[in-house]
């Protein structure tokens, strides 16, 4: 299933909707509006490709890589999976992560196997592990930050081994100053389930994410224009009905209330002349190296290739925005921008959707749900 999108380099006609950003949100809303309402869509992206940070592409070696970090697609929603299944086939999600601590690789997230290895007790049962954690954990009723969250789950030793260094490296912020939800993304289990996440459906697009989004927006009603910054054209081009904006919310308003902080990443890709280097897709390095993790995405893409590519992920203060930073002060500034955004929706029919536009640490399935939500808002407003 490989179909062509309508790539344009010049705007020569009128559109019902302009969508700024051809990432997951932009592609889903474009597809919905084009297929369900028959709208003429202009889908813009400032990068040279579609699919946003889900973009996967062939490295010069021919190995398929996730250019902007690993995407482990998962969802609990069958309906969402069924929707995406119109545009891709799937392979099982082989999302296994280990953490390198004190020269040993431990299964991560923390599960019964991790506890046996960490506490050097190979016969530890689930009941014994539960009692052990009860003894180790700190009894904090409602954790107010990520440090308290982890201490209340696994106690000081494992917090300091697996979380503290990683979180400081990733965010350059102490876990005490980050919302509980940051480290709360990672489950803790008392069974031998080693998978990175808990979701019911854990699958990867068989031909990759870029191909899936490409298929989604291959529609005669959708024109795609790359290398185009929405900010540069917004004053010259007016859509008939609506605008969907998936970029940074503060940038849309010319940063007039101040800048929202973002965490960025830099990737180094290294080819190795062997089929596999790592035992699993991801190894975390909480306490060593400048990078947080090494990713060998071949474990997930299932690609057959005599070589492999490892990506080294370095957190950065500057660069493209990857992560909103979940702290109260930032949430408060976002709330002020949200008031302006709601006004723009009401008066100018501009809809804000996605990780950058809503300043929320959404996963891919979650942004797709947000896209459905925004599509419904637009549909209800315009459908007669
Ligand atoms: N984290 C950690 N140790 C790890 C992995 C994650 O302390 O080995 C913390 C860290 O603060 C990180 C958060 O948990 O930012 C969420 O991790 P996840 O792997 O979900 O992050 P993502 O893949 O979105 O970068």
Top keywords for this entry?
about 375 residues, alpha/beta, Rossmann fold, about 35% helix, globular, binds uridine-5'-diphosphate
Q: Helix proportion of residues, in percent? A: 25-40%
Uncertain parts? none
Straight-line distance between termini: 35 Å
Strand content: 15-25%
Main β-sheet description: 7 strands, mixed
| CATH architecture group name of the domain at 6-50 and 217-260 and 325-382 | 3-Layer(aba) Sandwich
**Gross morphology:** globular
* Order of neighbouring strands in the sheet with most strands: 9-8-14-15-16-13-17
* Strands, count: 18
**Number of distinct helices:** 14
**What is the third-level CATH name, the topology of the domain at 6-50 and 217-260 and 325-382?**
Rossmann fold
Overview of this structure, please?
With 384 residues, this protein is α/β, with parallel strands linked by helices. Among the domains are: 6-50 and 217-260 and 325-382, Rossmann fold (3-Layer(aba) Sandwich), CATH 3.40.50; 97-184, no CATH class. It is 34% helix and 20% strand. The protein has helices spanning 24-36, 78-84, 112-118, 126-136, 146-154, 156-171, 180-183, 209-216, 230-233, 249-252, 298-301, 328-348, 355-358, 364-382, and strands at 6-7, 17-20, 41-44, 56-58, 64-66, 74-75, 90-92, 97-101, 104-108, 201-205, 222-225, 242-245, 262-272, 282-284, 293-295, 308-316, 323-324, 350-352. Strand 14 (282-284) and strand 15 (293-295) form a beta hairpin. Helix 5 packs antiparallel against helix 6 (156-171). The two termini are 35 Å apart. The chain binds uridine-5'-diphosphate.
């Amino acid at each position: 299933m490989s179909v062509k999108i309508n790539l344009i380099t010049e705007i020569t006609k009128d559109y019902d909707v302009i969508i700024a950003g051809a990432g997951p949100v932009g592609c889903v809303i474009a597809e919905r509006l084009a297929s369900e309402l028959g709208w003429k869509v202009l889908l813009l992206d400032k990068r040279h490709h579609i699919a946003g940070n889900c973009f996967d592409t062939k490295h010069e070696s021919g190995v398929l890589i996730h250019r902007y970090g690993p995407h482990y697609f998962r969802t609990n929603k069958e309906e969402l999976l069924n929707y995406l299944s119109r545009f891709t086939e799937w392979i099982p999600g082989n999302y296994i992560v280990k953490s390198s601590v004190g020269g040993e690789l431990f299964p991560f997230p923390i599960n019964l196997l991790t506890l046996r290895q960490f506490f050097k007790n190979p016969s530890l049962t689930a009941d014994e592990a539960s009692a052990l954690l009860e003894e180790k954990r700190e009894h904090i009723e409602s954790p107010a930050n990520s440090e308290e969250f982890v201490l209340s789950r696994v106690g000081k030793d494992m917090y300091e081994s697996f979380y503290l260094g990683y979180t400081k490296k990733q965010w350059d912020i102490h876990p005490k100053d980050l919302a509980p939800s940051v480290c709360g993304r990672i489950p803790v289990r008392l069974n031998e389930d080693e998978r990175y996440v808990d979701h019911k459906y854990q699958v990867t697009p068989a031909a990759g994410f870029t191909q899936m989004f490409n298929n989604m927006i291959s529609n005669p009603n959708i024109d795609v224009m790359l290398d185009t910054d929405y900010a540069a054209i917004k004053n010259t081009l007016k859509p008939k009905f609506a605008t969907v904006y998936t970029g940074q919310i503060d940038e849309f308003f010319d940063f007039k209330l101040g800048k929202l902080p973002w965490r960025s990443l830099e990737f180094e890709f290294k080819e190795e002349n062997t089929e596999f280097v790592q035992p699993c897709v991801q190894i975390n390095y909480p306490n060593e190296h400048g990078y947080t993790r090494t990713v060998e995405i071949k474990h997930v893409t299932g690609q057959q290739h005599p070589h492999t590519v490892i990506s080294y992920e370095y957190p950065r203060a500057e660069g493209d925005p990857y992560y909103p930073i979940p702290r109260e002060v930032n949430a408060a500034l976002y709330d002020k921008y949200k008031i302006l955004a709601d006004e723009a929706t009401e008066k100018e029919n501009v809809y804000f959707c996605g990780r950058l536009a809503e300043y929320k640490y959404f996963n891919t399935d979650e942004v797709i749900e947000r896209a459905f939500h925004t599509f419904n808002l637009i549909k209800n407003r315009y459908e007669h």
